[in-house]
Design goal:
The protein has 65 residues and is α+β, with helices and mostly antiparallel strands.
Length: 65
């Protein structure tokens, strides 16, 4: 498993457009891709799951592939 820690820098956080781009990129991988933040872990191939996290500027996340 590969992990990367990332801090959200976008001033508006992760809203619909950047979440869509993230999902499109994640779906290119055959492996399971997850985002962990705020004590929750979600499937990074689901835009609804990413949006439900409410990722705002300054939030530290872990992406797991």
């Amino acid at each position: 498993m590969t992990e990367a820690t990332v801090t959200i820098e976008n001033k508006t956080g992760i809203h619909a457009r950047p979440a869509s781009v993230f999902v499109q990129t994640a779906t290119k991988f055959k492996s399971k891709v997850q985002i962990k933040a705020k004590g929750k872990t979600v499937d990074a191939k689901s835009i609804l799951m990413i949006m439900s996290m409410g990722l705002v500027k300054g939030t530290e996340t872990k992406q797991m592939l």
